[in-house]
Amino acid sequence: MKVELEADKCVASGQCVLAATDVFDQDDDGIAILVDERPADEDLDGVREAVAICPAAAIRLVDQ
Fold first, then answer.
1. For 19-54, how does the pLDDT look when each residue is reduced to its tens digit (9 = 90+)?
2. Is residue 14 within 8 Å of 31, Cβ to Cβ?
3. CB within 8 Å of 63: residues ≥ 6 apart
4. Residue 2 belongs to what H/E stretch?
5. 18 CB contacts (<8 Å, ≥6 apart)?
6. Are 54 and 11 in contact (CB under 8 A)?
7. For 28, what's the count of Cα atoms within 13 Å in the CB-facing half-sphere?
8. Would you say 51 and 61 are in contact if contact means Cβ atoms under 8 Å apart?
9. Residue 5: pLDDT above 90?
10. Phi-psi region of 48 (alpha: psi -120 to 50; beta: other; left: phi over 0)
């Protein structure tokens, strides 16, 4: 699985970081940063949660 982040859509809510701390971070302005585009299996539930709760719909999880 691969994570895709459209940072230009990000509204800096930080929900992704709370859901998947090993996969996402935030820059100084609060915009999401993708730390690991191919997360470990144990991080996928958190990524799925981040996708579901992102208020800007800026995160996708794609099967690759």
1. 999 999 999 999 999 999 999 999 999 999 999 999
2. no
3. 1, 2
4. strand 2-5
5. none
6. no
7. 0
8. yes
9. yes
10. alpha
Percentage helix, strand, coil for the chain under 3-state DSSP, each rounded to 5: 35, 20, 45
Which tokens belong to 15?
């929900």
pLDDT at res. 64: 81
Residue carrying structure tokens 């958190």: 46
Please enumerate, as own/partner, the contacts of 48-55 that have beta carbons within 8 Å and a separation of 24 or more. 49/19, 49/20, 50/15, 50/16, 50/19, 50/20, 50/23, 50/24, 53/15, 53/16, 53/19, 54/13, 54/15, 54/16, 55/11, 55/13, 55/15
Helix, strand, or coil (residue 25): strand
Other residues' Cβ atoms within 10 Å of the Cβ of residue 2: 11
